[in-house]
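Deviations from the work plan: none for this task. Representative record:
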Amino acid sequence: MPQPTTQLSQADTTLRALPPKSFGTPEARHLLWRAGFGGTEKQAQLLVSWGIENSVDTLLDVGSDAKSAPFEPAPPEAFDRNIIRPPTEEEARLAAQARRARDEDTLAMLREKRQEAEREDRRQMGEIQKWWLKRMIETTRPLEEKMTLFWHGHFATSFRVIEDSYHMFRQNELFRSHAVGNFGELLTAIVRDPAMLAYLDNDENRKGSPNENLAREIMELFGLGLGSYTEDDIKEGARALTGYTYQDDEFVFRQRNHDPNEKVILGEAGNWNGEDFARIILSKPACARFIARKLYHTFVADLPSDEQGGLRDVEPWRRKLVNELGDMLKLRNYALRPVLRRLFLSEHFYSPDVMRAQIKSPVQLVVGAARSLGVPVRDLSILNDALDLMGQRLFLPPSVKGWPGGRAWINTSTLYVRQNTLVYMLTGVRARGAPNDRARDVANGGFDALGLLTAGLPEDQRTNPDAVARQALLITLGFVPDAGVDVLKQLLTHVGKVDNTASLACLLAATSMPEYQLC
Amino acid sequence: MSNASNAYSRRDLLKNGLLMASAAMTVPMFVQASALAMQNQAGDLSSVPGVPDERILVVLQLSGGNDGLNTVIPFGSPEYYKARPAIAIPEKDVLVLDKRTGIGLHPALAALKGMYDEGMVGIYQGAGYPNPNRSHFKSMDIWHTADTSATGEGWLGKYLDSECCGFGKGESGTPEGAKAAKPVTDALGGNPASIAIGRTAPLALHGRVSQPTSFESADLFRWVAEDADPALAKAYEQLNQRGAQAKGAGAGETNASFLLRTAMDAQVSSDLIRKAVAVTPLATYPQGGVAGEIARQLQMVAAMIRAGLKTRVYYVSLGSFDTHAGQGGAQGRHAQLLKAFGDSVKAFYDDLTKQGNNTRVLTMVFSEFGRRVGQNASGGTDHGTAAPMFVVGPQARQGLVGDHPSMKDLDDGDLRYTLDFRSVYAGVLDQWMKADSKQVLEGRYRAAEVVR
């Protein structure tokens, strides 16, 4: 169990804890967005009543079912594991025979069979995408899904390359099982993960003909960052990983393909295997600092891109803070929970520069809108499609580097898609519909916008345009900018009364504001 | 709204054009005048050092794997007719390009043949790459990244990055000083550096810094809720035009300020683009059917060029080339696709010629792979290897370039490529975009002569 904060805090630390009385609704809202995907005003108020420590511990408590309602993992049989299979011996023999005989009919039949399986697998991938999206929207343990997404971006693996949806699903479950567990265990597990082994060609990494892809990315992108190892370390690491492959859905170690001779990795000599390779990397302070940097970048604030994965262009005080987190991660043997706890309790996490300053990822935008506004989920396929248009296809990160995030999410095209996705969620109107249908449908979305806006207001304020406009901004943006109040009041005046149509118009306008892209 | 007095509204911008906007404000800028007027009027505002303002590249992607052998046809080879008894194009129907070597075009490409005869078409035979990949996705990524590992940024994205940030020596083309880097969009005064017509922007246009603008139709490149009520449209405009108050790009800009600017850019680009594409074209484009879709895209590109957008690269695509079954011969499915391509490109250049912009525009055409030499049992062809590329425009080098892949010396039933596609990219980059292809492509490829 995590230690109480008081024991971790030191007088001179940059990560000193936020005074408990400073934890108000804005801070609670911030915690809900960053440690999860946002929440309702009611949830924020509930956290305030619990106090900061209890709130943070509840969010972190994803392992036990004591406090959170159970949300069962998908059973392994939830998806079909048998869609993609290597050709059976019989099929291989048939194919070879047909090729020799130039038997076009048989070859065409085999090809068609394979293509049919691939089509079916792409369909299943779509189902898995929707399953995860739904899970993120409905979970009672948002941090678990947020960290699962974090690991998916960190150990980025793409269905596009491996073309096996079931392996992607299994990898997703692996990330979830280590969500706020232990990074060391996850790194060790990932060198045995079929999806990763396929993605980075380790199934072709054999004694005598090494493939360095996995070893390189473990050092460069997963564990250390450029500059903390040499090309020789990669070569030696690749030898340690020889013979690590998979058959069907399971990891297998092929002794005859493994290079058993001595390797020197990061200065340590021995007959290392894949687990040793991970262990040696984990023993380096640079590894813990590398992961801390990424956690900070994801949960706290954008850090300037640095090819070294380091902190060269970061202010000295911030560098000290991130490194302190890293050293704590190392000290705790890579247990993630105490580090995240320390972060979520820190004064820094709630400082003005940090709050409402992060650009929402597409997932954050969609899942956050559903969770914080209570809009109907409508059609998951359309939301899934919108994620694609916004640049975040689940299970299909653009490269092994994952999604760059931050401002890279935003350009003039994606901004319109983001705004139009909110239009869809609030009203059910799709961007593609004929323009004439849209006006009629906007008011018919089956969403109680009026209830959302007025629930938190005193009875006598529920028809007051000023109060309603402010509430709309608070609920969507988390603050009330003057420019927004004026415009929303105009809208309410235009409609003439505060009804569902007027409330919906307010929410549409508020979510179209550039500020809505921030959390 | 409270700051209305000192905020430039979108309408003001539209009315007054770029001359009112000072560079320091970083508000989006654009010109409505013709290209020639733009050059004179905009003066030093228009140019990025080292960027040739005038030249535009259009990439036309034939998605699905175009059957190169039934596009540029080796009618002089008996092997061609032997391998394709049902789908070969009879010699009498072939539009002859070179009688001596026996090479000609599919009859559906009559419009393109006309342009060829006018000296506007270069045909690059046998384009491919080592160890060809037969997956649509993988091979397309290889063409988009110009890298046979199919990883890294898009080749045109890297080009646009190099225009704004320069290249370091990093393994994957690290722009040095990324802090100071501003997307080319900024330097182009709010005009998108690249525009793709389609659902999502192709990988080819994604750089580390440069991001393309993409839209399926101009009608979707806007906030759709504005249809519901003019009051909502007005509210949207007020809330999203506050970018003029933003501090401006540069180190230390907050995310909030960045978003305000982008929202403003989006509104201006949307107005600009929707206004541009609303004009009646100067040429007759094919309507409906297979051709309608690609014609519509090229018509939009021509309209944006006509409106004076300073966009450097446009990307359009035509799909359904994955002709595994019933692809037809001189007529049929594949013929329709080729006709759609040829007729639309012809209309596009007719339009550009009437605008006076034809010499500024070079069009490069490619597909992710060709198809196998032999027809299959379903009257179609399966995924193959090398295929021709086209470079079109009054400035293009005319003629058949390189040798047609041998019809005798096959690689397990596939053509052996005779030209690395990156040679054509290198030619486009070096000779047309005036860039350094060695840096952009991160390797040396003998640049094909693509410009006359």
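The first helix of chain B runs from residue 10 to 16.
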